[in-house]
Amino acid sequence: MRRLLSVVVLLGAAALLSSCALLPGRVGLRDDDYGKAEARMVQIADALKSHDAAALKGMFSPYALDRATAIDEGLDYVLSFFPSGEITWQENTVNSKDAASHGKKSELLLAYYKVSASGNDYWLYFADFTVNDVVNPENVGIYALGVASWVEDTRSPEVEPFFRWAAAVDLEGSGTDGYPGIWVPPAS
């Protein structure tokens, strides 16, 4: 009898533990992040293909536009990478940061894509606040966008400033390295 009770308890525990696999987890959130990032990338690509600086500018949050320096020159810089208007892209990395408080939520997508145009490959990065009820409701939309030459080694001196800038962007904004708007390499 004691052995039968042990077997029943073990089988019950195994059934209970395996049922947890049926519950929805963060996988759905992750898939949603990829979908949101891809949808934003399609919008960016459409603007790049048509050299539509106004459409790109319209994707930025009011907060980022207010704090960005030389946004129009930055847009010209980004568009200069895509003279033919023909581009293809492939997702490299999509991450998100979020905060929740009293039923409100803020979510920041951080996405890196490999973008190809006119026989050249580039890194394209964007930071996009999809929801921002907790941190700053005026900061919904793209906070930061940048393009740099594609290199495999992201620690290469050629792209290290670009990745340092991108890494500095956070939910609360950014430090001096992660300013809002468009990344333009420092003057040599």
Name the helix and strand elements from N-terminus to C-terminus, one letter apiece: HHHHHEEEEHEEE
Count of strand segments = 7
Q: Which bin fits the share of residues in helices?
A: 25-40%
Beta strand %: 25-35%
CA radius of gyration is: 22 Å
CATH 2nd-level architecture? Roll
Structural class: alpha+beta
When the domains are counted, the total is: 1
* CATH secondary-structure class: Alpha Beta
Distance between the termini: 82 Å
Main sheet properties? 5 strands, mixed
Residue stretches low in confidence (pLDDT < 50, at least 5 long) are 16-29
Tally of helical runs: 6
CATH topology: Nuclear Transport Factor 2, Chain: A
- Strand arrangement within the widest β-sheet reads 1-2-3-4-7
Shape: globular
Mean pLDDT: 83
Description:
The protein is of the alpha+beta class and 188 residues long. It has one domain: Nuclear Transport Factor 2, Chain: A (Roll), CATH 3.10.450.50. Helices cover 38% and strands 30% of the residues. The protein has six helices and seven strands. Strand 1 and strand 2 form a beta hairpin. About 7% of the residues have low confidence.
